[in-house]
Design a protein that fits this description.
The protein is an alpha+beta fold. It is 13% helix and 29% strand. It has one domain: Alpha-Beta Complex (Fumarylacetoacetate hydrolase, domain 2), CATH 3.90.850. It is built from six helices and 18 strands. It is globular. It starts with a strand and ends with a strand.
C-alpha cells in the first residue's frame, strides 16, 4: 500500500493511492496515519479496504507528511562510506545517531524556509524507516518485523549551525521545514529489499546526488536493532538513514542553497519530492 495524508497544513486527512493513481480518502476508516494504524493489526485492517469503495480526493490537494504525530525523529550520520570520505570523516564503527525535532517535519513539496542567519543550507536525500510494531532490544533477525514501511526524506541541514560554534547536530537539523517526508509511506511488503534502492537529488536541474541504499554502512535491520537497544521505538517513529555523496559540504568549493533554489529528489519505489527554498518571513 501507498499511504498518504492530504490537505492544508494542520488539517490533513488520511488516504491511500488506488490502482488508478487517485488519492482515496480513508477518513471513514481511520482518524489518521499514526500510532495504532501503523501496527500489523492496523495495516491488516487497511488492506481489507477496497480502494474503489472510498471517495476520491477532489482536485490536486497538497500532500502532507505521510506519518502524523511522530514522537521520535532519529537521524543516522555518516552512514555511506563515500559520504563520510567526502566530508573528511572516518567510517563509523557503529551507527552515529542524532535527533531532528519533530516540529521540522513538513510535506514533500512544501517550501523549505531559509533561516535569517543561515549561511550553509545543505541537502541530503535519504531513505526513512517508519516503525510499525514497538521495538525494544530486538535482534537484527527480527528487526524487519517491526517496520511498517518506508518513505523519502530530505534531511535538510544548516552546516554552520551543525558543526561550527558549539557544533550540535540537533540545532543544524531541526529548523522548521528541515524534515520533508513523503509523498507516500510505502508498506514494507512492497519494498522486499530496502538495501537495493536507487536514489537521486537535483538542485536547479543539476544532478548532485546519485546513489543506492546498497552502499549503506549499516542497513535497515542493523539500525532498527541497534537503536532499539537504547530507546523504545514506537509505532510512527521515523528513522532517516543517511545520505550518499554529493552534498554541498563535501565540495572543494561548496555552493550552498539560497532563496529561489529548487530541489528535486527521489528514492526508487518511494516517489519524488520537490521543494523551493524561500526566505523566512519577517
Amino acid at each position: 500500500m501507498k499511504l498518504v495524508r492530504f490537505g492544508e497544513v494542520g488539517a490533513e486527512r488520511p488516504g491511500l493511492i488506488g490502482a488508478d493513481g487517485e488519492i482515496r480518502d480513508l477518513s471513514s476508516v481511520i482518524a489518521d496515519i499514526s500510532g495504532n494504524a501503523l501496527t500489523n493489526a492496523g495495516l491488516t485492517l487497511l488492506r481489507s479496504v477496497r480502494p474503489e469503495d472510498l471517495p476520491v480526493a477532489e482536485g490536486q490537494p497538497r500532500l502532507g507528511s505521510p506519518v502524523a504525530a511522530v514522537r521520535k525523529f532519529i537521524g543516522v550520520g555518516l552512514n555511506y562510506s563515500d559520504h563520510a570520505a567526502e566530508v573528511g570523516q572516518p567510517i563509523p564503527r557503529e551507527p552515529v545517531l542524532f535527533t531532528k525535532a519533530v516540529s521540522c517535519i513538513c510535506g514533500p513539496n512544501d517550501d523549505v524556509i531559509l533561516p535569517p542567519e543561515s549561511e550553509k543550507l545543505d541537502w541530503e536525500v535519504e531513505l526513512a524507516i517508519v516503525i510499525g510494531e514497538t521495538a525494544r532490544r530486538v535482534s537484527e533477525g527480527d528487526a524487519i518485523n517491526h517496520v511498517a514501511g518506508y518513505c523519502l526524506c530530505n534531511d535538510i541541514s544548516e552546516r554552520a549551525y551543525q558543526i561550527e560554534g558549539t557544533g550540535q547536530w540537533l540545532k543544524g537539523k531541526s529548523c522548521d521545514t528541515f524534515g520533508p517526508l513523503g509523498p507516500w509511506l510505502v508498506t514494507a511488503d512492497e519494498i522486499p529489499d530496502p538495501q537495493a534502492l536507487s536514489m537521486f537529488l537535483d538542485v536547479n536541474g543539476k544532478r548532485m546526488q546519485n546513489g543506492s541504499t546498497a552502499t549503506m554502512v549499516f542497513g535497515v535491520r542493523t539500525l532498527v536493532s541497534f537503536i532499539s537497544r537504547f530507546m523504545t521505538l514506537e509505532p510512527g517513529d521515523v528513522i532517516t538513514t543517511g545520505t550518499p555523496p554529493g552534498v554541498a559540504l563535501g565540495m572543494k568549493e561548496p555552493v550552498y542553497l539560497k532563496a529561489g533554489d529548487e530541489m528535486r529528489l527521489g528514492v526508487q519505489g518511494l516517489g519524488e519530492q520537490r521543494q523551493i527554498v524561500v526566505m523566512a518571513a519577517g
